[in-house]
UniProtKB/TrEMBL annotation:
GO terms for molecular function: cardiolipin synthase activity. The chain crosses the membrane at residues 41-62. The lineage of its organism: Bacteria, Pseudomonadati, Pseudomonadota, Betaproteobacteria, Burkholderiales. InterPro entries: PLD-like_dom, PLipase_D/transphosphatidylase. This is Cardiolipin synthase. One of its GO terms (biological process) is cardiolipin biosynthetic process. Gene3D superfamilies: Endonuclease Chain A. PROSITE patterns: PLD.
Amino acid sequence: MYSLHDLLLAYWPHIVFLISLISGAAAATHAAMTKNDVRAAIGWVGVILMSPIFGPLFYLVAGINRVRRDRISQQRDEAIKDYSNKQAVPVADVAADSAPQFVSLRTLGDRITGFPLRGNNHVKILLGGDQAYPAMIAAIHGARKTIALQTYIFDDDQVGREFAQALADAQKRGVEIRVLIDAIGSKYSRPPIIGLLHKNGITAALFMTNPLGMKMPYANLRSHRKILIVDGRHGFTGGMNIREGFVSAIAKQKVAGDTHFQVEGPVVLQLMSAFAHDWEFTTKETLPYSIWCSDDWHVPSPEVPARCVRSGPDKFIASTHNMLLGAFAVAQQHIRIQSPYFLPDQILIGAINTAARRGIQVDIVIPGSNNLRLVNYAMTAQLDQVIRNGCRVWRAGGNFNHSKLITIDAAWSYVGSSNIDPRSLRLNFELDIEIYSRDTARDIERLIDSEIEHADPVTLENLAAIPFRKRLRNKIIWLASPYL
């Protein structure tokens, strides 16, 4: 009689083949039935079939969206659901603050964002760490009741420790504090700063830490949102992480640029709503409206209509994508885009190119010096698709700039954490703000135009002059752009 060990030795190739066949068929079926993008479905099925063992395993880890936020949202207390509706400041006519063509864009936002457009907001632009960090720390020092902080990267460096100390001081004053850091972003520094936060008694958590019961972060889904709310009244959001590379006194000649925004008014309720959903999703703790929000606004002039736009691999997966499609469609004069990682999908490329062919001037500013080499290669491989249709692409001079800014017709702006790349548009949880204001749009336009003044144009001749081996390298990396 054969023992189990003998049977395994004799038939292990057949067993492995059977396991690979079953797992491959199951994974391929799941991909075909659940992916809405045909290219994504074809890509995953190809990976699964061409790599019988590794393919299904890779799909299991990186290809399945396990976020079930709809179910969690339905279980929320009504006060949490209605954060953004507690303070009803209706916006009668966005045309008066922006331009007539944006009336239809407002309707689009009403239908896809889950947040109403609110008036009586004040938005202040903060340039780089030199302006943003002191303003944020000052707000923390002035906190009386609550502090909610969410970020992708929170480094344990000179700036990170300054934030941690300010939070610790607030904790000693009796301020309620919640800090949410992305699990991947927390690993950008060693040791992660969450240990210091816990040591100081601060309630902090990591977003997406335990998929499949394994002690590892779920790397393919990340919270890329940057939110700070103090006393439910003072908000900060935009593109800035917390790290010393954005402070000129520390980074010196290598200081990186970015743009952040200080906001007051009802839009802060929407920031708090986004944070509260993410915090409850991560920790199962509900943050009561009565403690974490304020209905008492003393908003300085000028006041502008604005709303938050959430996006991520949940029911809001296409929010930013749809907002940009709508914005490019209503443009009548000029589209300005500044993005550190410009890798739009074919639908967005079509919308941008259609705008350019309608006679709209389209300016796209990307960094001349990029902090992600592979992304830069992939971007370069794709630039000809917009240039040949009349868009102007500029590689900015100077140091790396992490700003994510869009303005249209000197009247509407879209700012926040989203890059124009597959990760931001489909995999990351992002938070942006649309602003209907000529004054704000002109201020942002000046920032983008100042980059263009010191930028080099990218032309088809420039791209053709790149050596073939580098163009081939760029195209190969471009093929993997959805996973960069």
